[in-house]
Amino acid sequence: MALSDALQKMLEIPVPDHPALVLDGCRRLLGPNLYGPEPGAVGDGLATGVDPNVMLHIWVGHSRDLLDRLGWVSTPIRTRPFHGGASLFFPAAVDQLFTAAFLVEAAWYYTATELLGLAAIPRDRMVADLGRIAEAEANPTLVALVAEAARRGIDRLLDDDALTLGHGAGSETWTTTDLPRPPDWSRLHDIPLALVTGTNGKTTTTRLIAAMARAAGHVAGLSSTEFVRVGDDILDRGDYSGPAGARLLLRDKRLGIGILEVARGGILRRGVPVTRARAAVVTNVAADHLGQYGINTVAELARVKLAVHRALAPDGILILNADDPNVVAAAREADAPKAWFSLSAANHEIRAARSRRDPCAWLDNGRIIVSDGQSDTPLIAVIDVPLTLAGAARYNVENVLGAALSARALGIPDAAIHAALSSFRSDPTDNPGRANEFNVRGARVFVDFAHNPHSIAAVTGALAAIPAHRRFILLTHAGDRSDEDIRALTRGAFRLRPDTVVAAENPKYLRGRQPGEIPALIRQQCLDLGLPDEQVILADSPLHGARLIVERLVPSDVALLLVHDERSEIFALLDRQA
């Protein structure tokens, strides 16, 4: 049995099962996170029948008592109140993270039993159990290796049972039970590494930076919501925008430059997996997945995204969208060198950056301009960047600006950046699932993975600028969205000004909904927005919906297929019709 499995089974804390007080998760954070640069443990407590401030005060008190009894007297406690509850975090050594998580849970146990008036396990017994876990988990060699790597300026990757020092071509990996004493430090080093986060545009920006690195002759790799790839080799498919994807990518010894897509969930569940990136891009922040892990507002979500700044190397740079007010507000708390990008040279952050001679990038008279703080370089005309649809896809112009700044931070020359931008396309090869265009009997058909109001409004707004005889749109959503979310997604789609909407069932993503429930919500919202009844068509699946649209197309029509599932089958359908 792996040590991590054994540790998890060493103690079972009988947390009261009561709706007034709920421990909504207790997690080990293996890297930089929302609460600080160090690994540690966090719990999210919900207090529906108790004053959350009172709950948090008691939780902190029990945490302090247990920490002190365990001998962790200098360990700070950090809290984050939110509506209806609070999160409690404290840092821990890399060989005490299981113990820390148990300690958070134990402190919650005593908090709940106190507030609910229940009998509790004697404190000395709980502390003795925690001490046994701490002793079993202790690994002085692991602690020493991580500390020495940090002293030498070498990154580390942690998981439950392994340690990696360095990245890619400069990495070595060992099980935590068979660590070297010491390793051959001369073989270990980091590679240029970029992080990309945000609500929308993460995957496209990640792929763009990788294309720029490839154009410069590097063996580039990426981890993303679609797959992990090194060079032309896809290591695995699936959502790898968390720590597992980073480890799979950065342990590949072929890798020369790495780009990690970093999702909100990964940051909150396990922290940012690395500590020494050269660049971190925040594309934008909009309402998405609110209500999880105590993140209930866009402002709170922005602080989660900006946590990537804590994973930068000392000479790393935080690259930010100056046109997004949520990013601008959250950036005030981020202590890191910043490079801003904007669609306007008149943007306040761009003007301020230029006056300080800081790196930045902007759009000027249809040209992408990048500055290193000393000189401004016209990089390429937007009309020559296929990804931007001649500038109509403003969201992709933003992605281009962020990617160009990141590529420069990675040491990629402008010639390679220009070459990638002029050749990278919205097609199933370069950027699958992102405004992929097909010609079907003279009609233009676009397939996109947009799945929240912000991204759907962005892509429909861009395609609305394309002249069309008629406009079709395929809508389908996952069942874990609220009714109002689904209505909002539908309203965002109406920026396309559709003549016909096909509302499709998504059988694999019902997620608790009844069959037909989501298409009915979409249909009713379309009717409320003024679309005639006969122009709202129901379909059994995304592929069925795509067929219903394809069979109606004539030259000069425009269709947008927003699909989460059956994408390869839909691509094949469109290829056959081309």
How would you describe what is shown here?
The protein is of the alpha/beta class. It has four domains: 3-137, no CATH class; 140-187, no CATH class; 193-423, 3-Layer(aba) Sandwich (UDP-N-acetylmuramoyl-L-alanine:D-glutamate ligase); 436-577, Mur ligase, C-terminal domain (Protein-Tyrosine Phosphatase, Chain A), CATH 3.90.190. The chain is 35% helix and 22% strand. The protein has 18 helices and 24 strands. The strands form four sheets. It has an eleven-stranded mixed sheet, with helices on both faces. The protein has a six-stranded mixed sheet with strand order 19-20-24-21-22-23, sandwiched between helices. Strand 14 (312-321), helix 10 (325-331) and strand 15 (338-342) form a beta-alpha-beta unit. It is globular and about 80 Å long. The mean pLDDT is 93.
Mean pLDDT: 93
- CATH C-level class of the largest domain is Alpha Beta
Please give the radius of gyration in angstroms: 25 Å
Number of discrete helical segments: 18
Any low-confidence stretches, pLDDT <50, length ≥5? none
Q: Given the C-alpha coordinates, what overall shape results?
A: globular
Provide the spatial order of strands within the biggest beta sheet: 11-10-9-12-8-13-14-15-16-17-18
Report the end-to-end length measured between terminal Cα atoms: 55 Å
- At CATH level 3, the topology of the largest domain is UDP-N-acetylmuramoyl-L-alanine:D-glutamate ligase
